[in-house]
Design brief:
heterodimer; A: 194 residues; mainly alpha; B: 124 residues; 73% helix
Chain lengths: 194, 124
Amino acid sequence: MNDSSSIRHSVSNSELGLWVYLMTDCLLFASLFATFAVLRNNTFGGLSGGELFNMPYILVETLILLTSSFTIGLAVIASYKRQSNPIYIWTVITLLLGITFFSMELYEFRELVANGNGWSTNAFLSSYFTLLATHGIHILIGIVWIVFLIIQRIRRGLSSSFARRLAMLGMFWHFLDIIWIFIFTFVYLLGAIK
Amino acid sequence: MKRTQTATHLSAKKYTLGFGWSIILTVSAYIATSNEILNRSSLIIYISVLAMLQVFVQLYFFLNINQESKPRWTLWTFVSMSSILLIIVVGSLWIMHNLDYNMMPNMTSQENDKYMIQESSKGF
């Protein structure tokens, strides 16, 4: 694709460093997934995933996170093009979508715990909460990171280091959405299949 | 480490394509599951394939994975990680499945749960 709006981009050492970190993070999630996979049927007589999960709600959550991954990509493009207003628009939208996702996830957790399906109820729920909460903590860190970048942008203006930092946040955020694909498919969808 | 020159072409078109495909793949998996259009094992294979496709879509369109010129650091670190990941996941599933099979008396999972509750109420 070589239209006039595309940009040449070099991967800096910092971005490569973040990428290698993300690779190690994948292994962290892999072990949590493997644990969940082994324990997913150990409900100790309690409710299974399919009985607990509200699928339309999860679909909405998933699409919100996916959209936020898209909008942060648009923000990165705008920052390379030094387009001031689109940067604000897309980063703020990403932030709002991210906060919505996180709130939806917190609500889901609260409901589970309130109904007696907390993480100490059985092995399935322990592994479920560990996996989801680890992802959720990553999302929270991403949200804080977005806020910091917006503040930096306001106070220090555009620079190549801002573009690089936003690109790194973008990489981190895309990675979180990829992990969520696995959660959506192998925790929720798989749980919902009879 | 030398600065890597990439031939990455960032464009809104690319992100939009990636976004569009991801939505299609997500919603297809969701509809397939909620309407149970296939039997259980086929459905599992179907959603797994859709998930892997979406992962590659997002890796390519959002994370620009195969577009570095040599040396392809991001690609090869990804391949190394994937190999280790396969060992962790497949290895855990295989070993634990073997353990279960060799240890459990032959009961349904409901009978097994009842048995486990009974056993644990006896105390240590």
